[in-house]
Amino acid sequence: MRKIRRLSLRVVSAARSRAIVNGLIARVTRLNPMSETEKINLLDLNRAGLEAFFVACDEKPFRARQLMQWVHQRGVIDFEQMSDMSKGLRGFLSEHCCIELPQVISAQRSHDGTRKWLLSMDGSENAVECVLIPEKSRMTLCVSSQVGCTLNCSFCSTAKQGFNRNLSTAEIIAQLHLAHHSLLKEGHSQGVTNVVMMGMGEPLLNFDAVTAAVDMMCDDYAYALSKRRVTISTAGVVPAMEKLDQVTDVALAVSLHAPNDELRNQLVPINKKYPIHQLLAACHSYIDGYKSRKITFEYVMLKGVNDSLEHARQLARLIQGIPCKLNLIPFNPYPHAIYQCSDKEDIDKFRDYTSSKGIITVTRRARGEDIDAACGQLVGAFHDRSRRSEKYQLSLRDIEGVSIAH
Ligand code: SAH
Hints:
binds S-adenosyl-L-homocysteine, 13 helices, disordered N terminus, two-stranded parallel ribbon, 10-stranded mixed β-sheet, disordered C terminus
């Protein structure tokens, strides 16, 4: 059963890549070789996509594996240095293709070792943040999937900035390329070991680009991360959760944050569209049939809002029976936030209660607070096409008589 499922995953992923590659090949044929901007960024293609690309260029599919090893494993992005490819092929690639990485606008390091990069994705217009969290036995990279976010969760500072656009596959995988090769160049024995799609944006609203990037993260010829070490986090885009099961096998985190619809509607507005019973049904179907799969539920601790023992009781009743882990995230403040973090004693009582009901519960330690790199503090820099940031500033001015520098 699982074998069939895995096979069908590969077929779906190949079909998806073929569609992407067909578009790219159409572009190759009308390429103006003089135009730098028309070059195809090969970082946009996962293995199936690259194989289709090379076949379309009358090359053998194994070129895809060679290229991926150069780019992702050795960090080489200059085609001329790819010595196991023929001179003709290197010339062709240099003429028509590129490996384009984002520009680093700033790099910050927290006193606890957490690092944050602000990356310019297209010139200087759209910048997103990604964060590297070093721990004793792992290096976790928190990756962004969109420039801003459309979901408008009431406690999240990314939400206040509005939204500009989805990131491409290349722009997503480039964040891993940058962090991984920075570590290796600095002499670390290992690079990134874990990826969480918990940066800016809602990954499941950028489905194709995110799943293609995740393919590359797990590919043996690229970063070879185990599927258990790559996590997609969602606020609950239910139809996409159902689709995810068809195309990938990575870990899933769900930002629950409230144990009933009335409260969740306020905190996570997408709940009005996909209420809790639909969300939990989608969680069930993601793990059904997989003994080792667990859902990670994220629960931000907001003082006086969702942190009472009654909330813990409701939550335990709700998720008991789902193979899961519960992460309590102390709320990370930002300027003008309308929430406060729960008191430590309340967080501890909450954790003790859910643990006593057999739910594995962990309180997440805030990392990188001094450089605004903690959960929900990522903001980037971009032009907000949703105009939500403007409305937010106006509302602040009304409420508090303040104006915020942008
Ligand atoms: N949109 C996806 C990915 C973002 S992940 C999702 O909602 O899952 C970022 C995680 O940090 C989410 O669980 C989010 O709800 C949480 N978060 C957002 N703002 C926060 C804040 N100020 N303090 C603590 N956690 C926050």
